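<amino_acid_chain>
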Amino acid sequence: MDATFTEEQQEIRRTLRELTTKRCTPDDVKAATRTPAGHDLALWGALGTELGLPGLALPERYGGVGATVTELALAQEELGRALTPSPLFATCGLAAPLIAALGTDAQRDALLPKIAGGRLTVALAVPGTGLATALGLVAENTGDWAGGGRAGGVQARRADGGWHLYGQAEQVLDGHSAGLLLVAAHTGGFARSRTLLFLVPQDAAGLVRTRQTSLDETRPQARIELRDVPAELLGEEEADVRGALAAAGDTAATLLAADAVGAADRALERTVQYVKEREQFGRPIGSFQAVKHRLADVYVTVQAARSAAYYAAWAAGDTGGERAGALALAQALEALRTAAAEAVQLHGGIGFTWEHDAHLYLKRAAGDELLFGPVHLLRARAAQTAGLFGPAAAVSA
């Protein structure tokens, strides 16, 4: 493993650092979350159309750059530093890998060039609150998270020579603004129970999308209601959907880990800057040994998480690195939670007000763990997959 980044990879960092510093200040972030889209459309145009971030890890034949997960993770780390609200993760971290893995040639040719060019955003809709389970991050994704043939979830049935969906999905990242939905639905009843993925355009008849109030406004979520909605099957009925979801889950976890590391690093930077300026008893509070020790512990935690995230990005797609993404995500979520908590406390009385910028990082830490964790289940599932405690090991809440 060569831990040195190439000049091209460093340029991705420099370019995004410069852009987000100018156009994604905390005030810009708060303003963007309150728009109907939940993100700055002009900024997304710069990221998608001008810089081509969505196409970083897509093959050149589809208009992408043909780079690796490492480049996309570095981009996600920089966006995480600024807590940039954007559909990049939902589109390229969750949906695009599934389309590339399962889609037919015609579907890939029609959708991936638009995604690579930033002209199409896609959201993965999973029933209930089972996104982490569907991606195989906290439990084996062979259960009834997609409906299991019972009431609830999203069900698919054949009608009029095609497929129709009915049901509801909660906590769909960027689901209210995405141009295309990738919906996981159950079909076959109990006899031939299976989960398939379906493509649903934003203007489909019977589709109702409602933006939800969420703890972390920088990751907008939506409730998707499907009322006998016509849909197109992604790929073939015999496709290994659960396997593709698990593979996409490890990549998504890697990107989320990099995002969390970026946020934790920036929260630490802001806190260090503050303790150098805030005076108590006639001297900066950062000069007190207790404060130094606390921030040193945070620094070590963040650097360990960064190392884990970089390794997971390097190992993505390699069998030897299986589940590295989930472990890196667990480490990064802990680092972000620690850095955000220390930021709130060391900012003193002002840090405890909801209006202070420190709470943006606190909400990101809590929101990501609610969506993709908790940390102990991420680690337990990774240990189970690796056979660390034997083949009979099981994950329990």
User: Anything to note?
Assistant: The chain has three domains: 7-90+97-120, 123-239, 242-385. Residues 242-385 form a domain with the Butyryl-CoA Dehydrogenase, subunit A; domain 3 fold (CATH 1.20.140.10). The longest strand covers residues 221-233.
